[in-house]
Write a structure and sequence with these properties.
globular, 76 residues, mainly beta, 5% helix, 1 helix, five-stranded mixed sheet
Length: 76
Amino acid sequence: MTDFIYDVHHVARDLDRSLVVRCPHCQDVLGIEGGELDEVQGEQYQCHRCNGWFEVCSEARMIKGALPANKGDPNA
């Protein structure tokens, strides 16, 4: 885990209609607080598995189906 706050560009809905994202640090899928995409854009969250921080990008988009992998290191 690094101290870098990575951007998340994709948000999806889980079976219970809650919002989920993929952690850019550990690639775990986790639920985030908020009911609609515009409520979470620009918000920062901490992964409960790896303790890494990420921000839902202001240009993030809602996708259907499986979340793609996030490339965590923007310089890699």
